[in-house]
Specification:
The protein is α+β, with helices and mostly antiparallel strands. The protein is built from eight helices and 18 strands. About 7% of the residues have low confidence.
């Protein structure tokens, strides 16, 4: 929904989703039903509690003790307290048993303790993914007395400096205890950072039967890399069609399939353009259908130096049948960061949306036989000269690992490994790209020419 409605629905609190320092981003109503035990039907409770208290409540209600070991693995303690005492009408106004709670997201943070809450000032609205921000340790703080101001309407930090210092110190203690550190205020870069997955660190894959529904987080990533698909298939008499392998769909992704007995590889570039390779009719029998792509860029490693020129570059793709190239085409650009989040990696059919609705409709199961599918990925490696050049550029810009060493912006605990200069550099790059994009729009260029103009403009 629009931000206006989101904020309105948070009335009387301020702010919204992603902003954990203020109740508009965290405070929710909760209903509990247990007719056999709760006699105060419709009763209201106002004790402070947190979502981590739900499991302890269930365990107490079920009279189950948290196990210390499960399947031979020692369990971490459950950090929360039971709310079951509030079910009794006699305890409607009892003091809360949850006295301290930290909040943190993208370095926006707060600490609640005994009716007080210290909150960092909101420096990045939730709809802004890249912002010029100070070191997280230098964020200004606000203070609210929830005993008299439950909506966080009046900042009383100036009137209670000692209480604010006490709560700030408590936050760092809780943050260390619960592994919150180091703080990281970045949003866009964290959203695209690969998480641990089944495919992390691997470059060679093989499948010997159809498989569907692998989430994007566990699927091999082809972005900013060279790669090679080989599919050993049997084509029946009369021909075949259907999906060999796909990831993504209508709004971005690739599909390798047989359409009316012809091999096809399609890249859907976020529905702005589709690049397509198509071969001739396949004869009945066994074939090795191959798609080989050579990437032209330096890869994602350039981002370590605050340089984004290594990603989203073009490359040349070749569609081959039984070792012979049947279609070769240059891709001027590739997708730099992510594929469609709500799609999957599928072999043998397509469980999401089509990469091209004009070619097929899902599930588009392959009518031949897939004997084996292999994928080899070759990620670019920076040469010593590349590293030297990127380091020099980063140093000149006051950016990157070579420029950040030893810098600490405050006396509070170290809160991150990337300094303010990197945030500024990213913002400057985004500002320049936006200015270049507006220039390109004014020139009324076609999509390909517009992208080329922006790329050249940004490098000037």
């Amino acid at each position: 929904m629009s931000i206006g409605w989101a904020w309105a629905f948070d009335t009387p609190f301020s702010w919204t989703k992603q902003i954990v320092s203020h109740f508009g981003g965290t405070r929710q109503g909760m209903a509990v039903s247990w007719p056999a035990a709760i006699k105060d039907k419709g009763g209201i409770r106002a004790q402070f509690h947190h979502v981590i208290d739900i499991v302890p409540t269930i365990l107490e209600a079920a009279q189950i003790k948290q196990p210390d070991i499960v399947d031979g693995i020692k369990q971490s303690p459950i950090e929360g307290v039971s709310m079951m005492y509030t079910f009794d009408a006699k305890n409607a106004n009892a003091a809360t048993t949850h006295t301290t709670q930290y909040f943190e997201m993208f370095a926006d943070r707060a600490i609640y303790n005994d009716g007080w809450i210290a909150s960092t000032k909101v420096l990045r609205p939730p709809w802004v993914t890249v912002a010029k921000l100070p070191n997280p340790g230098d964020y200004p703080w606000e203070l609210y007395d929830l005993r008299n101001d439950w909506t966080q309407a009046e900042d009383v930090a100036a009137k209670n400096p000692d209480k604010l210092k006490e709560l700030q110190a408590l936050f760092w203690k809780e943050a260390e205890k619960y592994q919150v550190l180091p703080l990281d205020s970045t949003v866009a870069s964290r959203m695209i950072t690969p998480r641990p997955s089944l495919s992390a660190g691997r470059t060679n894959f093989a499948w010997i039967r159809p498989m569907t529904g692998t989430p994007n987080g566990d699927a091999p990533s082809l972005l900013n890399a060279s790669y090679n698909f080989k599919v050993d298939v049997d084509i029946p008499d009369g021909g075949a069609e259907g999906m060999l392998v796909t990831q993504g769909g209508r709004f971005g992704g690739y599909g390798f399939y047989v359409l009316k007995n012809k091999p096809v590889f399609t890249w859907n570039l976020v529905d702005l353009k589709r690049v397509r390779w198509e071969g001739p009719d396949l004869t009945p029998g066994k074939h090795l259908i191959e798609f080989d792509f050579k990437y032209d860029g330096l890869g994602a490693a350039t981002m370590m130096f605050g340089d984004y020129t290594g990603i989203g570059q073009g490359g040349t793709g070749a569609l081959k049948v039984d070792g012979k190239a049947v279609a070769t085409e240059k891709m001027e650009q590739t997708l730099p960061f992510i594929l469609q989040w709500d799609e999957a990696f599928d072999i043998g059919s397509d469980t999401g949306t089509p990469v091209d609705d004009n070619d097929y409709q899902t599930p588009f199961a392959f009518t031949g036989k897939i004997n084996k599918l292999t994928l080899d990925i070759e990620r670019p490696k920076l040469s010593p000269d590349d590293v030297k050049r990127l380091q020099q550029a980063a140093r000149a810009a006051g950016d990157g690992p070579s420029a950040d060493t030893g810098k600490t912006a405050s006396a509070e605990p170290q809160v991150g490994t990337v300094g303010l200069s990197l945030v500024d550099k990213i913002q400057l790059r985004i500002d320049k790209r936006e200015a270049c994009r507006k220039q390109a729009e004014a020139k009324d260029l076609g999509m390909v020419e517009r992208v080329k103009f922006v790329q050249q403009c940004v490098q000037q």
